[in-house]
Amino acid sequence: MQFIRIGKQEFAFGLFWQLVDNQRRIREDAQRLNMDAYALVPPPRTSEDTEADEDGADVKGKRKRALFGAARAKKRGGGGRVQVGFCSAKEAKRHKNALSAAAYVALSGENESYFASFQLDKKTYWHLAIHNGGILPEGDTICDRETCETLISEHTEIFGSNATPHEYHAEKEVQEFLAALNPTVKKPWAQLHVLQSRSAIIRRYVVTGVVVMGVIVGAIALAKYYKRQQVTQRHQQQKQREAILRARHKKMMLAQERKKALRADPWKGQLPPGLFADLCESKLSHVPFNVNGWELASWSCTAPEKPGGAVTYATNYAPTGNATFGAFPAGYQLQNNQTLLGPATSIGAPSSAMLDRPLPRRGQAYSLYDLAAPVGWSVKFTKRDPVAQFKKIGDKKVLLPWSKWPFMASGSSWPFLFLREFNEVPTLRIISIQATVNTNDSLNWIVSGVLYVQNPNYSGS
Q1: Rounded to the nearest 10 degrees, how much is the dihedral formed by the CA atoms of 209, 210, 215, 216?
Q2: How high does pLDDT run on average in the chain?
Q3: Are both 144 and 273 inside the same structural domain?
Q4: Nearest partner of 96 among 163, 172, 3, 25, judged by Cα
Q5: Residue 51 maps to a domain
């Protein structure tokens, strides 16, 4: 098949035409031909019509009566002779509003017997053959030039001297030819129809039966139906109100959680630097430097991970020449005969509350250098920039007004005096204090901590 648009109308070329005595047989013929779409044209003129034409009778009147008679039969769904052009439903569905070009010519009534060949493109021809107003089976064929000449010779014998002499039309002349015709095309003639499957027809009847039954039942129990509808409507309204209240409550809870997250200051629940230094120093003053010939190698003091937790202490000892490998005091453990672990102890940290001071800006963080430099300590931030912090609230990540900036301070002098001066930076917290004993019995100290500073990207919304 081939389709050509002329103005606003699309035409289909290349249907296979047959004369069907009973319109109920259209489905059977379509299945036999492995087709599932069709177009209809009124039946061709009979021999009686031809004789009447020769006697000068009213041919157009008979033609008109035959046309409307077939239309009434189609409307009744009953018998009635009709011409059917079969094609593929795949093409018909893609071109729903197309008309059969051969049927369009036949319905014009101007060419009772006519055959011609139109060139559609360089290699493709459309052969049209109408005899006594009827389209021949091969009278709507898409083919090449050689096949077209074969059909011409066959149809010349059928037409005899009653037809207009055959002629070839050049490319695009088919558009002028069809545009010159102006037949009154009424449904269902010339239009492409898709055959419904038997399952679709059965489903339509079943649905119709169910609808009819529903109408009957609804008419019988109309009062009960309205009452049930009212109950259902009230139930739905109650559900909608509950859903609205739940949504409002969720929105309010998320807003409160967001407000709480923005106002929460994580440094407030942790130990201030001075208090943490006091706890660590008091514990270190009771740590023995020699246990059964094992000398202190390292010592650490770690702040609690969560507010209200305990400060933990750990000691490691290295063996000397007179070290023993047994009879250690309670709590000491020997590991691989190389390291003596001191008792892991912890002490509950007292609660602390810091003054509600504003967050320092990034530039103010460098006051740490001023605090550490006089005692010969160095301070190094482990990140180039403060790390922005987020909190997931509902389905969204909320940017918090503060950022974390981890740092490390190292030195060899006793740290606890100047660590208390870190209280000058209220949002600074110490995570751990570690000491390593050198060969000359001096100590190397490493203090790790975090500084909370303003988030420059936080807009306060």
Answers
A1: 70
A2: 76
A3: no
A4: 3
A5: yes
Half-sphere exposure for 348 (CA within 13 Å, toward CB): 3
Output the CA torsion 148→35→186→81 (10° steps): 90
E strand or H helix that includes residue 64: helix 59-76
In terms of DSSP bridges, do strands 339-341 and 168-169 run parallel, antiparallel, or are they unpaired? Answer: unpaired
Element containing residue 203 per DSSP (H, E): helix 198-220
Residue 233 has pLDDT above 80, yes or no: yes
Domain count, the chain: 3
Query: Counting Cβ atoms within 10 Å, is residue 219 exposed (0-12), middle (13-18) or buried (19+)?
Result: exposed
Q: Residue 245 carries which side chain, given as an amino acid letter?
A: L
Instruction: State yes or no: pLDDT of 184 exceeds 50.
Output: yes
Q: Name the DSSP class of 103.
A: H
Amino acid identity of residue 460, one-letter, is G
DSSP 412: S
C-beta of residue 458 within 8 angstroms of C-beta of residue 399: yes
Whether omega before 137 lies within 30 degrees of 0, making that bond cis, reads no
Regarding whether 311 and 182 lie in a shared domain, the answer is no
340 and 316 Cβ atoms separated by less than 8 Å = yes
* Same domain, yes or no: 84 and 179: yes
Query: Could you report the per-residue pLDDT of 29-41, keeping only the tens digit for each?
Result: 777 777 767 777 7
Q: Give the span between the Cα atoms of 343 and 313, in whole angstroms.
A: 8
Give the model's confidence band at 263: pLDDT under 50 very low, under 70 low, under 90 confident, else very high: low
Token code pair at residue 373: 């430099």
pLDDT at position 356: 45
Could you tell me if 213 and 190 lie in one domain?
no
What distance separates the 2 farthest-apart alpha carbons in the chain?
A: 145
Q: Give the structural domain span for 222.
A: 209-249+256-261
Task: Report yes or no on 30 lying in a domain.
Answer: yes
